[in-house]
Specification:
Layout: E1 8-12, H1 17-28, E2 32-37, H2 40-53, E3 59-63, H3 69-83, E4 88-91, H4 107-135, E5 138-143, H5 156-176, E6 181-188, H6 194-204, H7 208-216, H8 227-237, E7 249-252, H9 256-259
Parallel strand pairs: 1-2, 1-4, 2-3, 4-5, 5-6, 6-7
Helix pairs in contact: 1-2, 1-8, 3-4, 4-5, 6-7
Length: 260
Amino acid sequence: MISYTDKVIIITGGGSGLGYSAALSIAQLGGKLVLVDMNKKSLEESKKQILEVAPEAEIVLVEANVTSEEDVKNYVQLTMDTFGRIDGFFNNAGIEGKQNLTEEYGSDEFEKVVSVNLNGVFYGMKYVLKVMKQQGHGSIVNTASVGGIRGVGNQSGYAASKHGVVGLTRNSGIEYGQFGVSINAIAPGAIMTPMVEGSLKQMAGDDWESAGKEFVSVNPMKRFGKPEEVGNLVAFLLSDAAKFINATVIPIDGGQSYKY
């Protein structure tokens, strides 16, 4: 049995998608949550929905931009001021960006995607790790992607940033294991979140649902993954049950990344 009683977990991108799903799983297991997102309305909706399922959950909402180092310092400090500890960190906020061939991919767009997906992850790790090292324990899960372990066409910024997350995860896991801190990444494939829906709409416009069916037809499991399936994996990886898993990247994609 996994328990989060008295454990404090920070989740970035907690207003929707994978962040919300992980928050819901952890709240049901007794965890205290600090949900971080740029969208205040989404945060409030997440909290409302979580409390409907786990009415005793303690949830703090923080409106912040992960590309701002100052905002990141602030959400870490707020967590310490409120709870006095950080047991787990789901470093999840990310964007896909526009799709285009590399030669036509906008430089500003590239910098924007890398700023959120890689710099934001780095800032989060930088300030959370200081706390966890001093505590002598903690677990971090970074959101990479199957696009971070193999190529993904027309998404130079996304693929480059997620490869960076993989490298940062492995490197930091090697550094901080000696301090009782485990650091891993998940590599989701086609999970039906607002981001994936947006990606399909970029590719196929109004015919995005048909494109989605064709996309998953090559998956060994012949379907999209569910956000709650990723949330359950994150809840396991951040728990005491997964303490000896470190510096690794775990695909959750129905087997697609191993098919090619």
